[in-house]
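Worked Example 4.2. Consider the chain below.
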Amino acid sequence: MKLFSVSLLSFTLLIASGCSSSIGSKVKEPFSGKKYSSNARYFRAVGNGISTRESVASSKAEIEAHKELAQQIVTTIQVVTDNYTQDVQGEHVDQAIERFESLAREITNTTIGDLRKIGEKKYILDDGKYSVYCVYEIKKSAMFRFLKKKAKLDKKINNMARTQIINMCEEEIKRLESLE
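Applying the procedure from the previous section yields the following structure tokens:
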């Protein structure tokens, strides 16, 4: 009986130790907390870049963060335009929404208004490469104000579509400011 207990115990330990090694260990990356996630008031994105050169690693991290922010903005623009379309109908609304989405793409492809870097951490890895983490944020209401300003200045938009875009932006700004 003693031999059975010892072999059962050793078998259990073997199984338990074998299982834990296949899972791996949990890694906490910089800027991974709730404080660095997007919320009702801010778009936030973290980027990471690895390279043998520090400047290249920094650029990669910034590009990754900007790309994630742009994706979040485009998704939000789509939600705003869908909600607006449900409230208002008509040919001029379709044209306004099409131009609004086009403006959003232009903005995310060129300049994102009120973009702030809120953190950056640099590490040297064991293999001598640099690992850079950076986090950016944009206040959502400021981004919609920037979009509204762009719409007012855009000569390609007719007056009816411009009015619709400005109305969409103003409604979203009011909604976002009520959350503050």
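The chain has one domain: 29-178. The chain is about 60% helix and 15% strand. Compare this with Example 4.1 before moving on.
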